[in-house]
Amino acid sequence: MLQKNIYEHAKITEYFKKFTKDTTSITKNPGGPSQQDFDFEGQSELYRMYRPRYPVTLLQHLAFTLESNGFPSEKRDLAVDIACGSGQVTCSLARSWKDAYTSKVTKEQYGLNFKKVIGIDESTKQLEEATQMDNIEYRCENAYNMPFQENSVQLVTIAQGLHWFDHNKLMQQIHRILVKNGICAVLGYSTPVFLRYDKYFHPAFKTYYEETLGSIHPPSDKRCYWNIDRRLLDHQYQQLSFDPPFDKKKMDRGMFYEHVHMNEHQLFGYFLTWSGYRQYMKKHNIAIGDKEKDPLNSLRSAFKKELAARSDTTMLVTIPFFLITFPKFKFYTGIINKNKKQKINKNFSSSKNCNVRSQFVYSVGRQKKFNAYHNKKKVKLLN
C-alpha cells in the first residue's frame, strides 16, 4: 500500500508539473477576495452542495497536530476560521469531539471540539447562509485587521483561500494573534484528476482547464479567466515562503488523496462553482447553460462518451487535498535570512480510512510521533 501511495503521489505531482513548467512568475494576490467572485446568485448553495468536503483523515491529522502541541480536545478554547465562506471547516472545528481514529465517524460527524469558533469572511451573502451552531460566531471582517488580542487564539485555519491574500501580510496577522504553540493550518485541494479516463474525458478536461479557462497563465494574461493564480493551488502553495514569521523547520505538509464516485450532476455542479468559469461566461456575455456557447457542453459530451464506452454511470474522481501546519514556537523578531534555502522532505508514509477511499501521504519525520501517539492511546490503526 505504501509503495502504491508513493507512486500515485509522484504521478499526480508530475501531472501538475506539466501544467506549470514555469513557476517563477507565480502571481501573489496583493489584496483579498473579490466580491464579484463570491457574491453571484446562488453561490452559497452551490458551494454547500458541490464543493469537496475535507476527508476525515485530514481533520484527524490536524487534531493530532493540536494534541502534540499541547492542545488536547478538552483544552481547545478558541479557533478562528479565515475566509470561512458557508462554514464548512468552521463547523468541523466547532463540533463535539469524536473518537479521532474510529472507523465509523463521517465528515458530517467529525469535530475538533473547540468551545468557541469565530468565522470571518468579507462576503455578506456567504455569511448570511452559513451553517449556524451555538458555539460559532460569524463576522464580516477584513483578515488583515482581525480584532483579536495578541496571543489569544489557539488555532487559525484558512481553507481554500490563501491564494486570495497577500500571504506575507496575512501570516504576520495570524502569528500576532496565536498563543505560544498555537497552530496556523492552511487547507485546500488542487484540481481534480481524471488520469484513468484518458480516452475522451481527460484530454477534453485538459483542454478546457488549460486553454479555455487559461489556468496555466498568470491572472495578468488575457488568456487567463481566473482572478488568482491557479498554479498556487495545483502545487499546494509550494512556491510560497512562510518564514518569516513562522519557522519553516517546524512546518508540516501532508497530502491526502480521496477517490470519489461522481455522477454528471455532482461533477458539473462542482465545475459551476469555479470563479474562472464564471468570469469566462461574464466576459463573453454567455448565459450559463447556453446550448451553443457554454464551454461546459463539449466537456459534458466527453463525460457521457467516456462513461458509455465503459458502461458506467459514475466517474471515479481523484481529489488531491493538502494540509500545511505551522506552530508558533517563538516570537517573530522581524529578521529575515534570505540565504536560507527550504528543504523538502521527499520521504512519505501512508494511512487509510475505511469510510472513504482516502490515501494520506506525510513525512516520515512525523511517523514516529504519530505511532507513539497511537500506542499511548492504545488505538489500533486500520491496515
UniProtKB/TrEMBL annotation:
- Originating organism: Reticulomyxa filosa
Q: Which CDD domains match?
A: AdoMet_MTases
Q: Which SUPFAM superfamilies match?
A: S-adenosyl-L-methionine-dependent methyltransferases (SSF53335)
Q: Which InterPro entries match?
A: Diverse_substrate_MTase, Methyltransf_11, SAM-dependent_MTases_sf
The entry sums up its family as follows: Belongs to the methyltransferase superfamily.
The keyword Methyltransferase appears for this protein: yes
Q: What is this protein called?
A: Methyltransferase type 11 domain-containing protein
What is a GO molecular function of this protein?
Answer: S-adenosylmethionine-dependent methyltransferase activity
User: Methyltransferase type domain: which residues?
Assistant: 80-185
Q: Which GO terms describe its biological process?
A: methylation
Q: Which UniProt keywords apply?
A: Methyltransferase, Transferase
